[in-house]
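Throughout our pipeline, every protein is held as a single compact record rather than as scattered files. The record that follows is passed on verbatim for readers who wish to inspect the format:
___
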Amino acid sequence: MVLYQFENDRKYDRASDYLEGFNGVIQSDGYQAYANIKDVKNMGCFAHLRKKLVEVMDVAPHTPKKSHLDTAMTYAINNEKYLRYYIEDGRVEISNNSAERCCKSFVIGRKNFLFSNSINGAKASGAAYSIIESAKMNGLKPYEYIEYILTRMTGNKLTTDLLEKIMPWSEELPKNLYKNKKA
């Protein structure tokens, strides 16, 4: 599932408040706001570590800059417990690249949308992108999926049962909503 939540800043309190009651894994790029949230395991990203080490290798043949090696090693040391979590839980990915790919379309899109210059507009686009990216993550065609959930919700009381049936991972979704499944 992909969720976008608008906040005015990136402080620990925002992440902590949003994730209150959540018990699971968050995979990030080492962002410290997730580090000590109760009942949340913060999984590190080996792609970010690799990028820092590649920077060291790219610079090393030309000018041995200590600062690049320091940056890479500091990242590895500061995030060691989060990076090790990958080998403890087979459900998590080795990197947060898929999450970052989901963010990319949102970041590019918000620069083009007039309504993202207000708090309500940013919240609305966050909700829309949460649905779109969650649909993509579950192999659905986003436009068809949104059309389906809007049709299903029209005139119906929004119940837990209805929500469970229209979630992007629901096994009750019609096959024609999927990119690779035949109707």
In short: The radius of gyration is 20 Å. The chain has a mean pLDDT of 83.
